Amino acid sequence: MAEPSTPEAQSPSQSRSEGDVPTPSLRPGAYDPGDYAESVARSAEEAGVPAVLVMTVLHNEAYKPHHPLLERLWQWWKPGASFGVANMHRAAFERVRVTHGLQGRWQDLRDDPDFAIRAAALHLKDLDQRLPKLHAGRYTRDELLALGYNTGERNMRAFARGVPPGPLARSYLRRFRTYRGRAAQVIAKHDESHDARGD
Questions:
Q1: Cβ(51)–Cβ(44) under 8 Å?
Q2: Are 28 and 46 in contact (CB under 8 A)?
Q3: What is the pLDDT of residues 169-189, one digit of tens each?
């Protein structure tokens, strides 16, 4: 059963991002990954991965509402569900938590978009380190990392060797390619405003 949202149940990461990062809307279709461009840029820089890759993954994972209340209800119905604006499964999160010494818990992903984006960027970094430098030319490196995010490291490495992905992975890749341009525009707009402010 989902844990109650009480101050005692909240993590240090939540207070860190409170006020900086909006909570996704309860209204269907009102969630926009572009609202998290600042968090994406910061987390991607920390992880050393392209911000466009992280933003495109967020767009790909925007197929369900990410409001904390709805995610609690979703977990009640499906205990193994993924959490947060980046839809991270518990096993993937725990690997990232241990590798990078994250203080938050998997459950915190649903309440703290900034923490969820940071965990996703670090996961993409870990996948990048495990992806062979040379791979079949069928996919770009970012496409393979996105497939790894969706299907796991073992499958990512198989796709890099030329093994064809199954229908679900192909669908994920199609969506990734579709959203790539939109994600690039969001990041470019963020970078322009960032430069204009002189940050």
A1: yes
A2: no
A3: 999 999 999 999 999 999 999
